[in-house]
Amino acid sequence: MKTSIKLTYARPILISIALAIVGLILWNTHDFLKEFKKEAQDKMSIWATAQSQFMGADPNAPLGDLVLEIFQSNTKTPMILSHTDGTYSFNNFNEDISENSKNLKILIKRFAKENPPIKIKEGETVLATLYYGESPNIKKLRYFPLALLLILGLFSAVVYFALKLEKVAAQNILWASMAKETAHQIATPLSALMGWNSLLNERGVSPEITLEINKDLERLSTISSRFSSIGLETGLDKVALIQSTQEGIQYLSDRFPKSVDIQFQSKLEPHIIPLNKPLYFWCLENLIKNSIDAMKGHGIIIVEIAKNKKYIVVSVQDHGPGIEKKYLKKVTNPGFSTKKSGWGLGLSLTKRIVTQFHKGVLKIHSETNKGTRIEMHFPMA
Question: Does residue 139 form part of some domain?
Fold first, then answer.
């Protein structure tokens, strides 16, 4: 318990630290990018100064080594030099862009947004305007925070699903432990009651009384067996589904009010599928009980067996008030119930039995004032 409490407090702290570290990295990257871009702009200012000296110099005079070195040092930043006579010079482009004037104007406009244009002057006379874009290194750095956020998102998703799986695993262990303990607690007095019932028989108590007691004891034995199966990794047997379903309906019909008509429908040939019969009966009982409660003990319930490409589908249809849309995703959560007196375990157990024990699917279709149809999809093999 103490370990669980420590983990509960530790997780938000660790998440906060991780977010703080990521935030610090992003902030530092942003600052570094600004500094790096400022340095690139300063270098372009030096390049523009060298260009102004070159354009204003005597064509016959040799260029200084410094000017040549400045020109030769910049081989990555794309540049467009717009001359006052309407012509353009290009530098560090992989393709000829002078052919398409429309694209050229768009590119100049984009460069002007990325970096402030530099006027190349000789004295007060403007000789040209330099437009330049971002170097490949700056572009890579600009995408770095996005890549980092993407990695963070993927990492968060992995952590979320890991924690979710951990929670589900803990719930499964709790389910199994509670089921085992319940089965054990029932089994002990059940054995004693069976003994007392046998003793009553021997002493000549009315057979009608002992017979009714025996029926209740069998019922308790069935419940104990179900809980025991939930708490264990039970195997699946080859079971005739249609025949077993009819047996289950007959058994339940004898114990439910006569004002409820449970009808069975199927056009399929007999099917043998892997099934845990006691647990399947439990699912069937849960769904039919829910339907009876929804219809307040009066009405028709249709149990139908059909199939699709992958599954044999057992459905239970009622004509009750239906389930509100906002509750459809919650009704299989343990402890959730729309009934005032409900424990919220029936559908949760049914989903666990169908999905975990039989590797199937549970689907719920419901319309307000029209009824609810719950489908148990069992694999054919």
Answer: no
Helix (H, G, I), strand (E, B) or coil at 323: coil
* Number of domains forming the structure of the chain: 3
The pLDDT assigned to 292 comes to: 93
- Same domain, yes or no: 22 and 74: yes
What SS3 string covers 177-246? HHHHHHHHHHHHHHHHHHHHHHHHHHCCCCHHHHHHHHHHHHHHHHHHHHHHHHCCCCCCEEEEHHHHHH
| Distance, first Cα to last Cα, the chain | 42
The first and second tokens of residue 63, run together, are: 């260029």
In a domain, 144, yes or no: no
d(CA 144, CA 33): 10
R_g of the chain computed on alpha carbons: 39
* SS3 category, 298: coil
Say if CB 322 and CB 354 are below 8 A apart. Answer: no
| pLDDT, position 364 | 95
pLDDT of res. 164: 79
Q: What predicted TM-score, i.e. pTM, was given to this entire model?
A: 0.54
Largest CA distance in the chain: 136
The whole-number pLDDT of residue 356 equals: 86
Residues 191, 266, single domain; the answer is: no
- Structural domain contains residue 143: no
pLDDT score for 2: 43
273 within domain boundaries? yes
Are residues 312 and 257 part of one domain? yes
SS3 249: helix
Q: What is the reported pLDDT for 344?
A: 64
- Could you tell me where the beta strands, DSSP code E, fall in the chain? 79-83, 88-91, 118-122, 125-132, 237-240, 260-266, 272-275, 299-307, 311-317, 361-367, 371-379
Say if residue 170 is in the same domain as residue 207. Answer: yes
Examine the domain organization and report whether 45 and 111 are in the same domain.
Answer: yes
| 125 and 19 part of one domain | yes
Do residue 211 and residue 241 come from a single domain? no
Which 8-state DSSP code applies to residue 309? S
Residue 31 domain boundaries = 2-134
**Along the chain (381 residues), what's the average pLDDT of each consecutive run of 10 residues?**
52 77 80 82 84 71 68 82 87 77 86 89 85 82 78 82 76 67 71 80 82 79 72 78 93 85 93 90 92 91 94 95 88 75 75 90 92 95 75
Looking at the fold, whether 161 and 101 belong to one and the same domain comes out as: no
